[in-house]
Design goal:
The protein is an alpha/beta fold. The chain has a 4-stranded parallel sheet, sandwiched between helices. A 4-stranded mixed sheet has the order 5-6-7-8, covered by helices on one side. Helix 1 crosses helix 2 and helix 5 runs parallel beside helix 6. The radius of gyration is 19 Å and the shape is globular. The termini are far apart.
């Protein structure tokens, strides 16, 4: 199908649903889905923004403002995955417990009868990656209209740009819990450190930021095109001081930079953890 045909298919899917509650994060996919759903269904579409300690604080205001631009109704909920030891123990299927909690909460809103369908922004690219959260999505009866329409991330960005959405070139989003190696317990103080580290990098204008946390060590990922700037004297010296102030004792940089799916790939194939890293030697 052409991109235009896929877009029309998506519109038809949403029209047939009649009403939807969209799991909204402010990212590229869920923003696009909410925009199209609102264009088709108006007040029969609502965005549900779930906030928890694992949601990057720097994203909250942006997410709210973007919904304002769309014009859709937004409901903000608190999720409590941190109360679940199966989640905080950080197993390889951690995302399953997070998604289960999320859609249990959204189901409560759907049960009111006004929004009969729960939908999420999973796209075709997600099918080729390890995503245990998809199991929870299927179990909870959530539909993924972008997948049903056959849309890829690149196509969603292209359509988002055509619709004038500010998220068309937005960085890839992931919850802060994804910054920890599997098996390391997720705790509030660790999430706060990661959030502070990434917010600092964001205020400096870096993109595709990841602060990979392990114990009191952190490995920084930014867009590959920005690594030279990250290592420049004017950036690295104050950065080193700030990261030590918030509690990190060892700071390193991944010289490959951010790459989509890197964590999943590293779990499938063992790698030398020190490859491509500069340890504390900014």
């Amino acid at each position: 199908m052409t991109l235009e045909q896929k877009y029309q298919t998506l519109q038809n899917i949403l029209k047939d649903m009649g009403s939807v509650a969209v799991a909204y994060s402010g990212g590229v996919d869920s923003t696009f889905l909410l925009k199209v759903a609102y264009d088709i269904l108006k007040d029969n579409a609502i965005g549900i923004l779930a906030v928890s300690p694992s949601f990057p604080s720097r994203e909250y205001q942006r997410a709210v403002e973007t919904v304002g631009l769309i014009g859709a109704r937004l409901e903000i909920i608190q999720t409590n995955e941190m109360d679940n030891p199966e989640y905080t123990s950080n197993p390889v299927n951690r995302c399953y417990f997070c998604k289960s909690e999320l859609f249990e909460r959204i189901a409560e809103i759907s049960a009111s009868g006004r929004y009969r369908n729960m939908v999420d922004g999973s796209n075709m690219d997600d099918l080729s990656d390890y995503r245990p959260g998809l199991k929870a999505i299927r179990e909870k009866g959530v539909r993924s209209p972008l997948q049903e329409a056959g849309l890829t991330k690149t196509e969603i960005r292209e359509l988002s740009r055509a619709l004038g959405l500010p998220t068309w070139d937005k960085d890839a989003l992931a919850c802060l819990s994804s910054r920890f190696p599997f098996g390391e317990k997720i705790e509030l103080w660790k999430l706060k450190m990661v959030d502070q580290a990434e917010t600092y990098l964001s205020t400096l204008g870096f993109h595709n930021i990841r602060a990979r946390h392990s114990g009191k060590s952190v490995k920084i990922e930014v867009d590959p095109s920005e690594i030279d700037r990250l290592l420049s004297t004017e950036i690295r010296i104050p950065l080193l001081h700030f990261f030590k102030e918030i509690g990190y004792t060892t700071i390193s940089v991944d010289l490959e930079g951010y790459q989509p799916g890197k964590l999943s790939k590293s779990n499938k194939k063992e790698k030398n953890e020190n490859a491509g890293i500069i340890h504390n030697s900014f």
